[in-house]
């Protein structure tokens, strides 16, 4: 099952009126993030096991080595990576015509009345992208994409802090955070954060800082530094 089909089926299931309790608005993104991490761990194990067997045989002085070279081992496909300039063939600054020629444009989702800002459905791990003045200015990805440091939807603010040094201290009510790509002069990342349940019971000795570190990332995007994007 493709990731797009899986996400559509999951969203339909969680949005069903037949559920005894309504699902939280970000449930689909959180579950897809868990799926992405599980697949990444499984792929890592598939690569590591043959290597461990070979090293163990050499260490034991065995003249027999597993003959993996006789098998056709499928290539391990990494998760899509959202770098500081874009993801795959879709890059910040591309003209809309170039994006269309590359077959990366889906349906038009929204546009401003003056047509300066237009949002399109993306392909693959690109959930959607926004074009400003004819150029790609923002790319929003799904739960199967990560930054080069492995941060994606479903990870926590604590994971984000461990990967990036320039983050502000998390505080309750902070709905999103922006941060720069490491070692790149590209765009700026923005991570949407889950909204805490303000009605939940909180004890007097609750550690707010530790509590916020467990806040999940529910959305991830990359934006250019174009001032025109602020009006979209």
From TrEMBL:
Spans traversing the lipid bilayer: 44-65
Superkingdom classification of source: Bacteria
Keyword list, A-Z: Membrane, Transmembrane, Transmembrane helix
Protein name: DUF4179 domain-containing protein
Organism this protein belongs to: Kineosporia succinea
């Amino acid at each position: 099952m493709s990731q797009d089909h899986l996400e559509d089926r999951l969203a339909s299931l969680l949005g069903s009126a037949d559920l005894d309790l309504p699902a939280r608005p970000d449930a689909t993104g959180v579950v897809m993030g868990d799926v992405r991490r599980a697949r990444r761990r499984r792929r890592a194990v598939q690569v590591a096991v043959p290597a461990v067997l070979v090293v163990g045989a050499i260490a034991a002085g065995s003249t027999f080595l597993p003959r993996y070279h006789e098998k056709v081992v499928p290539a391990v496909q990494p998760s899509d990576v959202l770098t500081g300039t874009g993801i795959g063939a879709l890059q910040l600054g591309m003209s809309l015509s170039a994006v269309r020629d590359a077959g990366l444009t889906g349906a038009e989702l929204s546009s401003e009345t003056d047509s300066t800002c237009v949002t399109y459905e993306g392909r693959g791990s690109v959930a959607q992208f926004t074009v400003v003045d004819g150029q790609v200015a923002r790319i929003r990805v799904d739960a199967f994409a990560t930054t080069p440091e492995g941060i994606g939807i479903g990870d926590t603010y604590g994971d984000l802090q461990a990967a990036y040094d320039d983050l502000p201290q998390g505080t309750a009510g902070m709905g999103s955070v922006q941060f720069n790509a490491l070692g790149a002069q590209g765009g700026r990342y923005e991570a949407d954060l889950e909204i805490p349940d303000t009605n939940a019971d909180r004890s007097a000795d609750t550690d707010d800082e530790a509590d916020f570190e467990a806040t999940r990332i529910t959305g991830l995007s990359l934006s250019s530094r174009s001032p025109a994007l602020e009006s979209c």
